[in-house]
UniProtKB/TrEMBL annotation:
Taxonomy of the source species: Archaea, Methanobacteriati, Methanobacteriota, Stenosarchaea group, Halobacteria
Region (Disordered): 217-237
Domain SpoVR protein-like N-terminal: 17-348, 475-547
UniProt superkingdom: Archaea
Chain ranges of the SpoVR-like C-terminal domain: 549-600
The protein's name in its UniProt record: SpoVR family protein
Bias (Basic and acidic residues) ranges: 217-227
């Protein structure tokens, strides 16, 4: 038997051992109210996993050095830093997930439950729907790879030129309009704007003497049409890649002039733009998506016993590695915020119900209601905690918390209730079984209900329904309110709107979030604030435009000479000037003519810093406008009057997160 056959048989045995966890994880996810894409699972080895991670989760990508760099980084992380690859899943229908064969069974189960939640998020979050209602990403990326490889293999095209062109485009891969649905660019020929007369004369090869005698500057100025004085585009265009695809020209070093894109250049730019739109939702929802998957994975593996007794310690170590990895951790922040939303929704539901009790108002609530007794009354029915084959007779098929059909099968011996007790419960039964406000880790959440919270809730209550007692009211509490609200939020938000709406002072204090800054007075980093406004601003800046600077096309006929003017939408964070210059050099290759960039920088005088330090306060920098220009040979920079950049400065922080129709 060949090594290939042996490898195939080994993977087949692993796959067969995972058939039951895959089947039951999907069934449990649906019981819990999730609606995932179908998932195809693949068993791969260590090297294949590293290759997939390097390729962004796909088996085929276009030829480029970046993938080799990513692969090398991943291998070194595993080798020297103890990193471990747990899962890869991509947004596709069906989704594709990859399991590393060397991982323990507890790891595989954790990945499977995590993936089912991801597949639910892919299917139901509106931002993923902006690219395609029915994605087939693997096929799309494979076709892109074939197309670009064909250009590299074309004897008429320089392979290095293709790779360099890709480098130019990738420096702008996040300069798209991620808040709008993806659309292709119609037409193969770019639309040429009015060309400067001086450029046309250059193409005639006239000597300088003839040009001075026949075409003086006054005549040249008179030939420019009046409409050229207007800016183009009429409004700033955030999809820089699309604009360049339609209006850009390539710089030809040999002639020193801008020339029309070759077919391979135009097509490569469009393929990379398409990929940028495909990956945009994943970047826009990293905290939400990973937190969502971590939440439901924990629910299934820990609370529903998907990790068996002899696997639980291993799983706990697995989750600790994920949730406690160093640096900013979207898994941890996302899971904590989803749990907070669940608890806050359930607490509000309880408060609204109790405020309908006769004689209870927001003013006397804490005198009339004992929240310790309320919490005890909300404990799940004991029957839900002792589910098993021996207790099936205690279940009533007419109870809305019971899945009558599954109960009948279980009584017939067709369902292993001891292993999977959730099978005989309905969604309502699982909501009560896992009601968040009575869990030990959330023991104090209900008691943090303040007088101001109650007043705010009562202000918007218009239902006159009343209960005679607290006990009667608690019997009508909707224990599914938290999960229902979580699914609503999952459908419509991205990370920025998620943090903007649900990050609260209570959350910041309970989870110990704070901001830190470099202070000139102490010349080191110091914790500066625990105020929710400051924490929110810091976090949201990491996610607005994927944490990258927002740059738009402001004018494609700047100074009436077909120069490109880009504008940086300044939000209080300066551009890295060295990187900005490098980007302009690459954009020049895509525009073919000089490129300009407007931005705002902060300036601090050394004397002011020293004076402020002596007075134990922070210096206040001056914000000034700057224009950086690259003409193909050199970079220049000049200060601009404030009026020229005032429109770029946000009054506070301009997050620019939601399309107009989403706000309506």
């Amino acid at each position: 038997m060949s090594d290939t056959d042996t490898e195939r048989r080994r993977k087949q045995r692993i796959a067969e051992g995972l058939e039951e966890p895959v089947r039951e994880a999907n069934a449990l996810a649906r019981k819990l109210g999730l609606d995932p894409f179908p998932v195809t699972y693949w068993i791969i080895d260590y090297d294949e996993m590293n290759e997939l991670i390097a390729y962004g989760g796909f088996q085929e990508r276009y030829p480029h050095w970046r993938w080799g760099m990513s692969y090398d980084r991943q291998q070194k992380q595993n080798q020297f830093l103890g990193g471990k690859a747990f899962e890869i899943v991509n947004n596709d229908n069906p989704s594709h997930a990859f399991l590393q064969e060397s991982n323990a069974l507890a790891d595989q189960k954790a990945v499977i439950t995590h993936v089912e939640a991801h597949a639910d998020f892919f299917k139901n979050n509106q931002w993923f729907g902006l690219f395609a209602d029915d994605p087939n990403a693997a096929a799309m990326l494979a076709n892109h790879a074939d197309t670009i490889e064909s250009y590299m293999d074309d004897p008429e095209v320089d392979r290095e030129a293709v790779e360099e062109w890709i480098d130019h485009v990738l420096c702008l891969e996040d300069c798209i309009d991620q808040h709008r649905p993806f659309s292709t660019i119609d037409g193969d020929q770019p639309h040429r704007e009015l060309e400067d007369i001086a450029d046309r004369l250059d193409s005639l090869g006239l000597s300088e003497e003839v040009r001075r005698q026949v075409f003086d500057e006054e005549w040249l100025e008179s030939q420019r049409p009046e409409e050229e004085s207007g800016s183009f585009p009429a409004e700033p265009d955030p999809d820089v890649l699309s604009f360049l695809r339609r209006h850009g020209m390539a710089y030809d070093e040999e002639s020193g002039r801008a020339v029309e894109y070759e077919d391979w250049q135009r097509e490569t730019l469009e393929l990379l733009r398409r990929e940028a739109y495909y990956f945009a939702p994943q970047k826009m929802t990293k905290v939400m998506n990973e937190g969502w998957a971590a939440y439901w994975e924990s629910m299934m593996m820990g609370e529903e016993g998907f990790a068996e007794a002899d696997e639980f310690i291993h799983y706990a170590d697995h989750q600790a590695q994920v949730l406690n990895s160093p640096g900013f951790n979207p898994y941890k922040l996302g899971k904590e915020l989803w749990e907070y939303i669940e608890n806050a929704t359930n607490r509000r539901e309880v408060a609204e119900t109790l405020l309908r009790v006769e004689g209870v108002t927001w003013r006397n609530f804490h005198d009339r209601v004992d929240l310790d007794e309320v919490r005890a009354a909300l404990e799940p029915d004991a029957m839900l905690d002792r589910l098993g084959a021996a207790t099936l007779d205690e279940l009533d098929p007419d109870d809305p918390r019971v899945d009558a059909e599954a109960l009948e099968s279980a009584r017939a011996g067709d369902v292993d209730v001891d292993r999977y007790p959730w099978k005989v419960l309905s969604y309502e039964g699982l909501c009560e079984r896992h009601y968040s406000l009575v869990k030990p880790q959330h023991r104090g959440f209900l008691k943090r209900l303040t007088q101001s919270d109650l007043e705010r809730i009562a202000r918007y209550m218009f239902d006159d329904a009343r209960y005679a007692s607290v006990e009667e009211a608690l019997a009508n509490v909707d224990r599914c309110a938290g999960w229902n609200r979580m699914r609503e939020i999952r459908e419509s938000h991205n990370d920025v709107t998620f943090l903007d709406e649900f990050l609260s002072q209570e959350f910041v204090e309970q989870n110990h979030y704070f901001t830190y800054e470099f202070t000139h007075t102490t010349r080191d980093y110091r914790a500066t604030s625990t105020a929710v406004e400051d924490v929110k601003k810091k976090l949201m800046l990491q996610f607005t435009n994927f944490g990258k600077p927002t740059v738009v096309v402001e004018d494609a006929n700047y100074n009436n000479r077909n120069e490109l003017l880009l504008s940086h939408q300044y939000n209080g964070v300066m551009l890295d000037q060295r990187q900005a210059r490098q980007v302009l050099e690459r954009v020049f290759e895509l525009w073919g003519r000089p490129v300009n960039l407007k931005t705002i920088v902060k300036q601090l005088d050394d004397h002011d810093v020293e004076v402020a330090r002596r007075r134990d306060r922070e210096p206040v920098p001056e914000e000034v406008g700057v224009l950086v220009r690259y003409d193909g040979d050199s970079i220049s920079s000049e200060e601009l009057p404030w009026e020229a950049v005032e429109h770029l400065a946000a009054t506070d922080v301009d997050y620019d997160t939601k399309p107009d129709e989403w706000l309506a």
